[in-house]
From TrEMBL:
<protein>
    <recommendedName>
        <fullName>NADH:ubiquinone oxidoreductase</fullName>
    </recommendedName>
</protein>
<feature type="transmembrane region" description="Helical">
    <location>
        <begin position="33"/>
        <end position="53"/>
    </location>
</feature>
<keyword id="KW-1133">Transmembrane helix</keyword>
<keyword id="KW-0812">Transmembrane</keyword>
<keyword id="KW-0472">Membrane</keyword>
Length: 91
């Protein structure tokens, strides 16, 4: 779980959201540009969470959608997980 929370994608989205909230906090009016920035941030957050879900599925041996950034790497991720599990439990 730690590798997901501190991954660069999610970390970048969170920092982007903090920066966006700081920019809006002042007395600036809420314009269409600010609304578009929030929509863009929400899309980025959704994509980062979707990638985390896809990686978790691939590590458990499930097939991910072909439009996923890790499509085709499921077997490699599963083997990596199995090696870690063997090392951890001494099997």
């Amino acid at each position: 779980m730690r590798k997901y929370l501190f991954g660069t994608g999610l970390f970048g989205v969170i920092l982007g959201g903090v920066g966006l909230l700081r920019a809006v906090r002042g007395n600036a009016p809420f314009t269409w540009r600010v609304a578009l920035a929030f929509v863009s941030w929400a899309i980025s957050l959704t994509l980062a969470i979707g990638t985390i879900i896809d990686i978790g599925r691939a590590e458990r041996g499930h097939v991910v959608d072909p439009d996923s950034p890790i499509a085709g790497q499921e077997e490699r991720l599963l083997q990596k997980r199995l090696v870690r599990k063997r090392r951890l439990y001494g099997q």
